[in-house]
Amino acid sequence: MTGRVQALNLRAVKKGHILSGVMSLILMISGAGSAAAAAGGTVQAASSSSYKIVALGDSITAGFEPAMITQANPKAYGYVDRLQEQGLFRGRTQTVNYGILGLKTEGLSHYVKAIKEGRTLTPDELQPALADPRAASFGQGTAAAKTELQGANLITITIGGNDVSQVMAVAAEGGAASSNLDASVAQLLANYKTNVSQTLSDLTELNPNAQIVIADQYQPVPKLAGAAAYEQLEKVADAFTASVDALAAEFTAKGAKVKVAHVAKEFIGGEISYTHILEKDIHPNQFGYEVIAKVFAKEIWGEYLQPSTRSSDVPLTIIVKGKEISSPYKPVVKNGQTFVAIKDIVSAIGAQTAWDNRTSSAVITSGGRKVVIPVGSKTIKVDGKNVATASPAYLNKIGKETKTYVPLALLAQGLGLDVQYSSHLKVVFINP
């Protein structure tokens, strides 16, 4: 998932092109065009025993990128999706994404307050002129959101970009005197503090045990746009960060569990590499979303985990209970199904396996469950009951050895394992 960011020929980038993008699209984070195609409001890997992440916020939480505008069925891969993967490295994880495009701090405050009070909202009650086409669904789904938030272990928030965008646009354009800009920033941050303070109060009342991590606001305009404008923009971003830090300190002093993901400093000097600014869009690109995910992950877990590099003949990596399986018996993908050597998986989860020569069956026992998987059969037995399968186990000859290979999904079903596949990482996560 990581990769070397390709160097850009900055001399070939015209200042006017960047500034025109800033002026026309620094507001796009709240614009109608981007809202029309973003994916969000999704639930991943539900389980009652899962570590639950609930993500609240704007289009950064939704994982929006400009290409989604023209995609028929856009699928985001943003920082929240990466946090889901980070959770899976550590155990069963469920993620619920309530990223709403165009959302401002006042809208988030309205939304969370309605969730706490058990009220539904019309789109305009959520936020007037909110462009996200899913606004009505979010407003009517407050009861479900309340349940999710009350059961959350972790609540992440990105919010404020739509509030600060107009001030940043003025700063980038250089169209305001320093005193006027300072006054605008002061008013902006006063409103931000009021709205976010209310949101944090409501969240801590809903779930006093959840860890809350809120991001500060990166600014997307590179220094190439002009040193004076860049200095003004960084000043605005610094003031925003100071405000977020002050809020977190205030709530921490009251006993709440609130941390700050300091994203802004990681984007300094990387504005072109980490955003779509050259495409006249200020949202993060894939490099940017990975940077954001790393900041959150290090604040939450202390590190950002990644799988080892695979050799070209290995189709995917298998991680069981946070540990990669290193085996000469490589997974095999057949007809869209992943087959694995049964012994590797059962050993990794601490199960026992035996071979029944009479029936040519693998017998696995784990946690009170007994699974019998006959080679070539379209039926397995789980605790004595027949379960149909379209993908039978088979014997795979590897060198001088013959190993029983079973569909991973079949094994998971029989043993009650949680199996999640990341197509981006090409990793299968298996957790008991």
UniProtKB/TrEMBL annotation:
- Hey, what's the signal peptide range on this chain? 1-35
Residue ranges of the SGNH hydrolase-type esterase domain? Answer: 55-290
Q: Write down the SUPFAM superfamilies for this protein, in alphabetical order.
A: Copper amine oxidase, domain N, SGNH hydrolase
Entry-linked Pfam families = Cu_amine_oxidN1, Lipase_GDSL_2
Q: Where are the transmembrane segments?
A: none
> Which molecular function term from Gene Ontology is one that the record holds?
phosphatidylcholine lysophospholipase activity
Keyword annotations: Signal
**What is the protein named?**
Copper amine oxidase
Q: What is the lineage of its organism?
A: Bacteria, Bacillati, Bacillota, Bacilli, Bacillales
